[in-house]
Design a protein that fits this description.
Blueprint (H helix, E strand, L loop, with lengths): L3 E7 L12 E5 L4 E5 L8 E9 L4 E8 L6 E2 L6 E4 L4 E3 L3 E2 L5 E6 L2 E2 L8 E3 L5 E3 L8 E9 L4 E12 L15
Parallel strand pairs: 7-15
Antiparallel strand pairs: 1-4, 2-3, 4-5, 6-9, 8-13, 10-11, 10-14, 12-13, 14-15
Length: 177
């Protein structure tokens, strides 16, 4: 708009931004730059820059800031223990933005419904094993990927099944005379 007398930035909530340790405004005569240090997911959104000239005329431009969360496994425990015959849920807490695609492997084979009817990948990406047995023990691989960025990672989780406990009482036979 020529020579602006005021350049202001507004955050996605519509609040005017003032310089702080995390957000700095660098303003020259006809140009302004907003710098966000250590940006977090919550900083994403539409930012507006508003320029006002001496006559009070205002023009604005907006910038869409997208922030992507790196593929991250959060506090995945190994081993994970279950009781024989229970419905087990092997936890694989993984986050990313966009949402990752999760695939489970056991003994280097992908776990699919067609071949493993007792196994199911839940909406939260955990692996459910119906009526787990000692034969299900071993190391499971939770593999997550974000194809848009070509990002892929995995975590191996040892699964331990505590067997059924059989209590037997010795039979004592006594012969009466």
């Amino acid at each position: 708009i020529g020579e602006p007398v005021r350049l202001e930035w507004f955050n996605p909530q519509g609040e005017r931004i003032v310089s702080s340790k995390r957000m700095t405004l660098q303003t020259e005569s006809f140009r302004s730059r907003l710098i966000i240090y250590n940006a977090i997911i919550e900083d994403a959104g539409i930012y507006r820059c508003q320029a006002t000239d001496a006559s009070g005329h205002t023009e604005e431009a907006s910038v869409v800031l997208e922030i992507y969360q790196k593929l991250t496994f959060r506090d995945v425990k190994s081993p994970q223990e279950f009781r024989h015959s229970e419905t087990a849920e092997v936890v694989c807490d993984v986050i990313s933005s966009p949402v990752p695609v999760v695939v489970w492997y056991y003994q280097d084979n992908e776990i699919t419904k067609e071949y493993h009817r007792r196994f199911r990948v839940l909406p939260n990406n955990n692996l459910q094993i119906h009526q787990i047995t000692k034969a299900d023990e071993g190391v499971y691989r939770c593999e997550a990927s974000v194809e848009a960025r070509g990002e892929i990672n995995f975590v191996d989780i040892a699964v331990v099944v505590n067997g059924e406990f059989l209590i037997s009482f010795p039979f004592i036979y006594t012969q009466q005379a």
